[in-house]
Write a structure and sequence with these properties.
This protein is mainly alpha-helical and 200 residues long. α2 crosses α6 and α5 runs antiparallel to α6. The longest helix has 28 residues.
């Protein structure tokens, strides 16, 4: 009996994939804009919770690194223009770029139950990148004194965003699909939701 094509194969699957990626990019942009409008008191100027990073992590594990990169670039560039905070663009690009590299590395190399750890490592990388940009642009090495506080804050916020991302991925039927697990991943693994235990 002829085999039935998988749900994600062919042009239809590509269209669905593009639509999902676009929706995630729009969601990330909306969350970034909302966070900029509702600043929270933080111990270090410019520190944020990074709730939009949840979407990037979900995109990386669900649709793969390419979609995660698109989500990241759309969010960072458009958010800077929409909120009028163009001066923050170098910080966001460098910090977010390092966080994306860490996230992709976890997707490719680590087991799929490391979502929280991935998010924590990405948050730390993000803060390190932003401090590096601040030191380079201002020629003020003393800014690096904020780094210990930012590292601790990155671990805390990364754990929170990772917990949310893990909860969302648990409800996505095609999480950890072919894009992130390689071409030999079985169709069954793509169609089954991720168990609660695997994401703890």
């Amino acid at each position: 009996m002829a085999s039935t094509p998988s749900r994600g194969s062919g042009a239809g699957g590509s269209t669905v994939r593009v639509c999902r990626c676009a929706l995630l990019a729009a969601l990330a942009l909306a969350l970034a804009a909302l966070e900029s409008l509702l600043p929270l008191p933080m111990p270090v100027p410019g520190m944020k919770l990074g709730i939009a990073n949840v979407v990037t992590v979900v995109a990386a594990y669900w649709l793969g690194p390419a979609c995660a990169a698109v989500v990241f670039l759309v969010r960072v560039v458009l958010a800077a223009f929409l909120t009028g905070q163009l001066s923050t663009l170098p910080f966001s690009l460098v910090g977010g770029g390092l966080a994306l590299i860490v996230t992709v590395a976890f997707v490719r190399l680590a087991s799929p139950d490391r979502v929280r750890l991935c998010s924590m490592a990405a948050a730390v990388a993000h803060n390190v990148g932003q401090v590096g940009v601040a030191v380079a642009l201002t020629a003020t090495p003393q800014i690096a004194l904020y780094l210990p506080v930012l590292l601790v804050a990155g671990l805390v916020t990364g754990f929170l965003t990772g917990t949310v991302a893990a909860a969302l991925l648990e409800r996505v039927p095609a999480a950890y699909r072919l894009a992130s697990r390689g071409p030999r991943a079985s169709r069954a693994s793509c169609e089954q939701p991720i168990s609660r235990e695997a994401l703890r």
